[in-house]
Amino acid sequence: MTPQSTRHLEAIGCFNEIFPMAANAANLNAFRQGLRERGYIEGRNLIIEYRSADGRGERFAELATELVQMKVDVIVTRGTPAAKAAKNATRSIPVVMASIGDPLTVVASLSRPGGNVTGLTSLTSDLEAKRLEMLRELVPAAARIAALYDMGNPVFAQRWKEMEAATHALGMQAYLLDARKPEDFAPLFDAASRQHADGLVVGQDGLLQASQKIVAELAAKHRLPAIYVSEDFIEAGGLIAYGPSYPDLYRRAAMYLDKILRGARPGDLPIEQPTMFKLIINLQPAKALGLAIPQSLLLRADKVIE
To answer: Within 13 Å and on the Cβ side, how many CA atoms surround 202?
Structure first.
């Protein structure tokens, strides 16, 4: 059956922290596939209005207001700032979060979000510890680990606590590299070198994603083995990434959208965590760093780039 076949086209407003449509193609393709599986076809009974803040945080409110004024049926967001902007712009249009670092900054609870916002989170409590363990497998003698976070984003306060606890449990030391703007990266990597960091854990938010090529290049320049959250950083030249599958989150977001368009209230739909994770390894930077990738990591990898 074609959903909503007797009414006008469903208009879906999508906007996120940094990605223009072309750069977000893999996620959007998964989202469209999830919609097609439920009978929504662009141009037939679906319109997608895509907006990107292009890494400029001051644009979130403007974009959210624009979509509200267009009277879209649902707004789909990625990232905490985008979700907050959408919630602030409307209390009536449903908001589906395709991914958010800390949903409790936007909704009342995970089981019953309340209001007009629901969706999926990319946050799980032990991911930083797992990334650190993988970095230790890559560099067994590593004792001093730097963490590149944007502490201006409230998501990273808890991440830093987890990183400190995880490094302490492994008998390692953690150093915080707090990046608030693109100009911070070069001096922070210089500081990591002065501190003789043996490895780097890179967080993920709008600033870090928008600067992924710069970050990967600086890690290579300073010969610093780094582990990232998503495959985007590997495509930019990074070494290794472990984290949620963002295409899977987008595909699952289509399920939320379908339920809402069929009459479900967003506030009654629980926030779900990721269920699919990907380990990506890039052998080229490993070779440049003189690292031999352990067989244990290669066997677990979802993708190995030669």
So the answer is: 33
b (16+ CB within 10 A) / e for 112-150: ebeebbbbbbbbeeebbbbbbbbbbebeeebeebbbbbb
Q: Please state the separation of Cα 53 from the chain's center in Å.
A: 15
Q: What is the pTM of this model?
A: 0.84
d(CA 287, CA 186): 23
Asked whether the beta carbons of 238 and 282 are under 8 A apart, the reply is yes
Cα 51 from Cα 217, distance rounded (Å): 28
**Model confidence over 41-64: pLDDT tens digits?**
888 888 888 888 776 777 889 999
Quote the CA–CA distance of 64 and 300 in Å, as a whole number.
40
**What proportion of the chain, given as a percentage, has pLDDT over 90?**
69
Tokens of 195: 């501190």
Distance in angstroms (rounded) separating the CA atoms of residues 82 and 240: 27
Q: Are 231 and 241 in contact (CB under 8 A)?
A: yes
Alpha-carbon Rg for the chain in angstroms: 20
Q: Greatest CA span in the chain, whole angstroms?
A: 66
45 within 8 A of 3, measured Cβ to Cβ: yes
Q: Report the 10 Å Cβ neighbour count for 25.
A: 12
Q: What share of the chain is helix, strand, coil (3-state, %, to 5)?
A: 40, 20, 35
Cβ–Cβ under 8 Å, residues 203 and 174: no
How do 46-52 and 277-282 pair as beta strands?
A: unpaired
**Residues 6 or more apart in contact with residue 109 via CB below 8 angstroms:** none
Lowest mean pLDDT, pick from 46-60, 92-106, 196-210: 46-60
Write 298-306 long-range contacts (CB < 8 A, 24+): 302/278, 303/231, 303/278, 303/279, 304/280, 305/234, 305/280, 305/281
